[in-house]
Every structure is written in structure tokens, then in C-alpha cells.
Amino acid sequence: MDAPIFPWIKDDVAIEIIGKMIAEQVAQLNNLLNDCAIAGFRSTDEYVLTHPDYVAYMQRIRELNEEINQIYRGDNMAAIHQRVEKTYAPYLKGKYSHAYVKL
Questions:
Q1: Burial letters for 24-50: b for 16+ Cβ neighbours within 10 Å, e otherwise?
Q2: Residue 2 carries which DSSP code?
Q3: What are phi and psi of 43, to 5 degrees?
Q4: Coil, strand or helix at 36
Q5: Digit-coded pLDDT (tens) for 50-95
Q6: Average pLDDT over residues 12-37
Q7: CA angle 55, 30, 60 (to 5 degrees)
């Protein structure tokens, strides 16, 4: 029998995992901005602001932030928790599992 989990703990874990997904997008965005800077573009230049990757990263960051806001509002909880469990957590585990040294 599974022990009951306080709902706020599940929400806090989901927020933490979504935050890590945001950090992933921000890192990719920063890499793009660095590449653009090396090529002589500023982050406010039209070329950068309309770059397809820039647009995609910004959109994804907004979507992830909205998921966190939905958790705080209590909206769409089942769908968000399922996405965290089935998509985000496995992605992060796969990405960072090599960082842990097994003794």
C-alpha cells in the first residue's frame, strides 16, 4: 500500500521539476544569444528576436511558467502532474543521470 503524499509536496516537486525544465530552456537560449553575439548581433536586434530558435525557447519558457502558475491557482492539476511524471522527470533523469557517480 502506498503511503499518502501531502498534496502540497507533490505540487512542490512538480514546481521544482518544471523549474529545471525552464533552466534547460534558458541555457539553450543563452547559448543562442552567445552565438549571435559572436556573430555581431545584440540580443535586441530584429535578427535575434525573430530567430526561430529564440522564438521557440521564449514560447516554451512562457508555457512552463504558465504551468507553474496553474499549480499555484489549482488549475489543470491532473494534466500537469501527469506531464511532469511522464515527460519532464524522465527527460531530466536521462539527461543528468550520468552526472551521479555510483559508488
A1: bbeebbeebbeebeeeebeeeeeebee
A2: P
A3: -65, -15
A4: helix
A5: 999 999 999 999 999 999 999 999 898 899 999 999 999 998 888 8
A6: 96
A7: 35
One-letter amino acid for residue 103 of the chain: L
On the CB side of 60, CA atoms within 13 Å amount to 19
Cβ proximity of 100 and 93 under 8 Å: no
C-alpha cell at 103: 559508488
- Looking at residue 1, its pLDDT comes to 45
Identify the CA nearest to 83 among candidates 98, 56, 101, 63.
63
Q: Which residues contact 76 (CB under 8 A, 6 or more apart)?
A: 70
Residues 23, 19: Cα–Cα separation, whole Å: 6
Amino acid making up residue 10:
K
